Amino acid sequence: QVQVEESGGGLVQPGGSLRLACAASGSGRRANAMAWYRQVPGKERELVATLPRGGGPNYADSVKGRFTISGDYTKNTIYLQMNSLKPEDTAVYLCTAWVANRWFWGQGTLVTVSS
Closest Cα to residue 86, out of 19, 13, 37? Predict the structure, then answer.
């Protein structure tokens, strides 16, 4: 079984920055892709950024130019650097990892952007 764990959320003022981290462990196999989603209560889960192993990153239009996804697949770990944060970025950020032809999800980390 694969465990996915996010960290790094918190409260930040508008215009500030946060860095999220995600690690997938337990399978002994490298993930083929990992991604960040976010969810606000009452709304659909939104794809934020993806990083396939050996491929380039992709971003939602709403975060392009502000967020950067990076990772180290030797450690099954990805990061999300979030700059110029806006109140509408407030959400639970969830990490997912594609391992052995299945997506595994973490519990999420809360990011609150407020003054």
Answer: 13
Three-state secondary-structure class, residue 8:
coil
Q: Which residues of 90-104 are buried (b: 16+ CB within 10 A; e: fewer)?
A: bbbbbbbbbbeeeeb
In angstroms, the CA 9 to CA 34 distance is 18
57: how many CB neighbours lie within 10 A of its CB?
15
E strand or H helix that includes residue 70: strand 67-72
Interval 41-61: pLDDT, tens = 999 999 999 999 989 999 999
Q: What is the pLDDT of residue 60?
A: 98
Tokens 């950020």: give the residue.
93
| Local confidence band at 82 (pLDDT 50, 70, 90 cut-offs) | very high
Average pLDDT for 3-31:
95
DSSP secondary structure letter of residue 54: T
Length of the chain: 115
Phi–psi pair at 38, nearest 5 degrees: -140, 155
